[in-house]
Write a structure and sequence with these properties.
CATH topology: Rossmann fold
Order of helices and strands: HHEEEEHEHEEE
Number of strands: 8
CATH architecture: 3-Layer(aba) Sandwich
Shape: globular
Strand content: 15-25%
CATH superfamily: Vaccinia Virus protein VP39
Oligomer: single chain
CATH class: Alpha Beta
Radius of gyration: 15 Å
Helix content: 10-25%
Distance between the termini: 40 Å
Number of helices: 4
Largest sheet: 8 strands, mixed
Length: about 180
């Protein structure tokens, strides 16, 4: 059974879903057709509304995930790798982000990592805060190749402040990246 507070958090996240609907098409432009996808922090797997994928595995606290899991309690093992790994708004949550990235990076050939930069938005549930410079520095310590940060602009104001707060995306791999 999920944490009872999870349903309050989930309701709050659904109020923010309109922003995900702007983020997800931008992310999908960087997923090659026919790719297998591992989505850590998949929520309700909404990304699948923006891309066709026959080989997708989503992990989250959300009961709609393929595998329900709290990443702070234990690290998962998978018996395979995927073409693309997604961490969309996730790396701000783990208590030990270095341990998290070191462990999970082996399960995908390429990772797409998206954050809300520190200067835009802070949540009390976050254990890690990043601006573009600190995000790139973190990712370079875990991957051989890291793209320059890309801005994903939003046209919908946020729920709490009414500000337009953009996302930042990096693409990472341990082999050369073609974007």
């Amino acid at each position: 059974m999920a944490n009872p507070d999870f349903y309050d958090i989930l309701q709050n996240e659904y109020l923010l879903k309109h922003r995900w609907n702007e983020r997800n098409p931008a992310v999908c432009r960087y997923i090659p057709a026919g790719s297998s996808i591992l989505d850590l922090g998949c929520g309700d797997k909404d990304i699948l509304n923006f891309i066709e994928c026959d080989d997708y595995w989503g992990v989250d606290l959300c009961p709609l995930a393929d595998q329900v899991h709290d990443f702070d309690h234990e690290l998962l093992e998978f018996g395979r790798t995927w073409d693309v790994g997604l961490l969309l708004g996730v790396i701000t949550y783990p208590k030990d982000v270095d341990k998290f990235l070191n462990h999970y990076k082996k399960f995908a050939k390429r990772w797409i990592i998206v954050i809300n930069p520190k200067e835009y938005y802070l949540k009390s549930e976050w254990n890690n805060y990043f601006n573009n410079e600190s995000l790139v520095k973190l990712l370079q310590s875990h991957f051989g190749y890291v793209s320059l940060p890309m801005n994903i602009a939003t046209t919908i104001p946020t729920l709490y402040t009414g500000d337009y707060k953009n996302f930042t995306m990096c693409i990472c791999s341990n082999s050369p990246i073609q974007i």
